[in-house]
Write a structure and sequence with these properties.
The structure holds two protein chains of two kinds. Chain A is built from ten helices and 14 strands. In chain A, strand 9 and strand 10 form a beta hairpin. The longest helix of chain A is centred in the middle third of the chain and has 16 residues. The radius of gyration of chain A is 22 Å and the shape is globular. By secondary structure, chain B is mostly helical. Chain B is built from eleven helices and no strands. The longest helix of chain B has about 35 residues. The interface between A and B is large, with 51 and 40 residues. Chain B: InterPro entries: ABC2_TM.
C-alpha cells in the first residue's frame, strides 16, 4: 500500500515552476525527501496537505485526492513546518493541547495526548513555561509534538534538523527514526543533507528543480564514495604520509584529512597511525554524503 | 538537555470530533488570550483594569439607587458614556487575537488541520465579539440586578435593559469586525493598537467637525447624519429607533432616520468582515 502517490504533478507559480511533472510513489516507513534549497520540497508538502492546488497532474495521500479531499487528508496527517511557527507567550502544553483540539480531539483526550507526546519528544518540566524562552532545540521538539499529538497516520517533517547543533541533530534524527519504527507512523522527512537522511530512512526520493532525480531504497545508494574526516591537533602531514603508505587514498582539505573508507580496517588504520605517531586526535567523523555528490553521480550516469 | 523516557508509544483510537468542536476550541482559546488567562500576569493587567473601570459607574449607580432612591446612568446610555473605555479595550486587545498568529506564522499549524480559513476567522470574530459584549453587558446586568434587589419605586426598567443588551451585542459585532480587520493588517502589536485607536479617534473627532460645519451652513437635517460616523452613536441611533430610548448624543441632538442607521450598521459589519476575509485569503496563500 502506498502512503502517497503523485502522477505528473506540476505546480507553476507566475515566475517559477516549483514542481515539474513529478511522478513518484512512497510506501510506509521513513522516507527522505532530499533536494537543495528551492528544489520544491516545501511546495510539494503543501500540495500533499491540500493547501496549494496543483497546476496539473494528480496526487493522492492515504488514497485521498489532494484537490477534492484535502480536509480528509489533514485529519489523518501531521505537519511540522520548516519555519518558526510558535507563539512565544503560551506554554508548550497549552499550545499542544489547543492544537490537538483543533484536530478534533476532545479536551480530556487532548490533555492526555499532549502530555504523552511532549514526554516522547523529550520536553519535561519546561513544557509549562512560555515558549518564548525556549532554545532552538526545544522549539523544534514542540513543533514535532504538535505534528504527532493527534496520532496521525503520516507525518510530514520539513527540515526538522534545521538550526540544531550536532548533538541536537542526532537526537532529532533518532526521534524521527523512532516515530517511523516504534510509533508505527509513516514519516516523510525533508533535508538538504542526504548524509543525514541515510542514517534514518528506508527510502530516499531526490528532487531537483521540481523534477524527480531518483527514488530508491536506501541500500541502493552507492556506498563507494564513503569517506571519513580526520582532524588532528598537529602532524597532519605525517599522518597523511603514514596512511598513504598503508595504501589509503588521502586528500587534505584545509585542517582536515579526508580518507576514503575501504572497510572497517580503514578506521583501525587511522587509529593505529594516530597512536603510533603520538598525535592528538580531535575528530573522527563519518563523511556526510552530500546532495551534490548524488547530483554529480546522476550527471555522470547520464 | 532532557532525556527521552522509554515508555512505549500509545495510539489514539478515541473519537475525533468535527468542525463545531474545533470552532469552539479556537474561540475559547482566543477568548482566554484576550483576557490573558493562561498567559503571564502582565497580559492580564490591561483587560482586567478596563473591566474594573467599566464596572465603576454601575457600582455608583447601584449606590445611588440604594441610598437616595434615584437612577444613576441609564442602561441605554451606558455604552455611549463609557465609549472611550470600550475603544481602549478594543484597541489594546484586538491585536492579541490576530497579530501573534500572523507575526509568528502560526497560521500553517491551523491550516494543516481540518480547519478552514473561514472557520478560523469566524472563531476569532466570535471570540472578540463575546469579549466586547461581556465588557458592556456585565456592568449593565450588574446594575439591573442591583435595581431589582434595591427595589426602586415603580417597575424595573426591564425593557430598556433588554434593549441595551441586544444593542451591546450589535455594537460588539461591529467593533470586533473592525478591530480585528484593522489589527490584522499589521503583524506588529503596537501598530495594531495604534491603528485601531487612531481610527476610533478620527471617527469621534470627525463628528463635531462635520456636524458643526453642516449646522453652521444651515444644513440641519444633513448635520444629524454626522452622528453615524462614530460607531457608538451609530448603534445608539438604531437603539433609539428600535426601543424608543432618548438619543444619547451630545445635548440630546436628534439622530437621522432609524432604518437608515440600521442599514449603515449592517453594511459596516459586512465591510469589516469582508476586509478580514480578504486579508486572511492572502495570508493563507503564503
Amino acid at each position: 500500500m502506498h502512503i502517497l502517490a503523485t502522477e505528473g504533478l506540476t505546480k507553476r507559480f507566475p515566475t517559477v515552476t516549483a514542481v515539474d511533472q513529478l511522478t513518484v510513489t512512497v510506501g510506509p516507513g521513513v522516507t527522505g525527501l532530499v533536494g537543495a534549497n528551492g528544489a520544491g520540497k516545501s511546495t510539494l508538502i503543501k500540495i500533499l496537505l491540500g493547501l496549494l492546488p496543483p497546476s496539473g497532474g494528480t496526487a493522492r495521500v492515504l488514497d485521498l485526492d489532494v484537490t477534492s479531499q484535502g480536509a480528509g487528508i489533514r485529519r489523518l496527517v501531521g505537519y511540522m513546518p520548516e519555519h518558526e511557527c510558535l507563539p512565544p507567550d503560551v506554554s508548550a502544553t497549552e499550545l499542544v493541547v489547543h492544537l490537538a483540539q483543533m484536530s478534533g480531539l476532545p479536551r480530556t483526550a487532548a490533555r492526555e495526548r499532549a502530555a504523552d507526546v511532549l514526554r516522547h519528544v523529550g520536553l519535561a518540566e519546561e513544557r509549562y513555561r512560555p515558549i518564548g524562552g525556549y532554545s532552538t532545540g526545544m522549539k523544534q521538539r514542540v513543533k514535532l509534538a504538535q505534528a504527532l499529538v493527534h496520532d496521525p497516520k503520516v507525518v510530514f517533517l520539513d527540515e526538522p534538523t534545521n538550526g540544531l547543533d550536532p548533538r541536537g541533530r542526532d537526537e532529532m534524527l533518532a526521534l524521527v527514526r523512532r516515530i517511523g519504527t516504534e510509533f508505527g507512523i509513516s514519516v516523510v522527512v525533508t533535508s538538504h543533507l542526504l548524509g543525514e537522511l541515510e542514517r534514518i530512512c528506508d527510502h530516499v526520493v531526490v528532487i531537483d528543480a521540481g523534477r524527480l532525480l531518483r527514488s530508491s531504497a536506501i541500500g541502493e545508494f552507492t556506498q563507494s564514495t564513503q569517506t571519513v574526516t580526520v582532524e588532528v591537533d598537529e602532524g597532519m602531514e605525517a599522518l597523511a604520509a603514514r596512511l598513504s603508505e598503508t595504501g589509503h587514498t588521502v586528500s587534505p582539505q584545509g585542517r582536515l584529512l579526508v580518507v576514503q573508507v575501504r572497510g572497517p580496517e580503514t578506521y583501525d588504520a587511522v587509529r593505529d597511525a594516530a597512536a603510533d605517531l603520538d598525535l592528538c586526535l580531535i575528530r573522527l567523523e563519518q563523511g556526510r554524503h552530500r546532495i551534490e555528490d548524488v547530483f554529480r553521480e546522476e550527471v555522470a550516469h547520464v | 538537555m532532557s532525556e527521552i523516557y522509554d515508555i512505549g508509544y500509545r495510539h489514539y483510537d478515541g473519537p475525533r470530533l468535527g468542525r463545531a468542536h474545533s470552532f469552539r476550541a479556537l474561540a475559547v482559546h482566543s477568548l482566554r488570550g484576550i483576557f490573558g488567562i493562561g498567559r503571564p500576569a502582565r497580559s492580564k493587567i490591561v483587560p482586567f483594569a478596563l473591566v474594573a473601570i467599566m464596572l465603576m459607574p454601575a457600582v455608583v449607580s447601584i449606590a445611588l439607587m440604594a441610598l437616595i432612591k434615584e437612577r444613576g446612568i441609564a442602561y441605554s446610555a451606558y455604552a455611549v458614556i463609557m465609549q472611550a473605555v470600550v475603544a481602549i479595550f478594543l484597541a489594546s486587545q484586538s491585536p492579541t487575537v490576530v497579530a501573534p498568529d500572523l507575526r509568528h506564522r502560526v497560521l500553517p499549524l491551523y491550516l494543516s488541520r481540518p480547519v478552514s480559513v473561514a472557520d478560523y476567522v469566524a472563531a476569532k470574530v466570535a471570540a472578540m465579539t463575546v469579549a466586547v459584549f461581556a465588557l458592556v453587558a456585565v456592568p449593565l446586568t450588574l446594575m439591573y440586578v442591583g435595581e431589582v434587589v434595591v427595589d426602586l419605586p415603580g417597575d424595573p426598567a426591564t425593557g430598556e435593559y433588554a434593549g441595551s443588551i441586544l444593542m451591546a451585542l450589535a455594537l460588539a459585532l461591529l467593533l470586533a469586525a473592525f478591530g480585528l480587520a484593522l489589527a490584522s493588517f499589521t503583524p506588529r502589536r503596537g501598530l495594531g493598537v495604534a491603528s485601531v485607536m487612531v481610527v476610533y479617534l478620527l471617527s469621534s473627532a470627525s463628528v463635531p467637525m462635520v456636524y458643526g460645519t453642516l449646522y453652521s451652513t444651515g444644513n440641519e437635517a444633513a448635520a444629524s447624519w454626522a452622528w453615524l460616523l462614530n460607531p457608538f452613536w451609530l448603534v445608539d441611533s438604531v437603539q433609539s429607533w428600535l426601543f424608543g430610548t432618548p438619543p444619547h448624543s451630545i445635548e440630546g441632538a436628534a439622530y437621522p432616520s432609524g432604518p437608515a442607521s440600521l442599514a449603515v450598521l449592517v453594511l459596516l459589519i459586512a465591510a469589516g468582515l469582508g476586509a478580514l476575509a480578504l486579508r486572511y485569503r492572502k495570508a493563507a496563500a503564503r
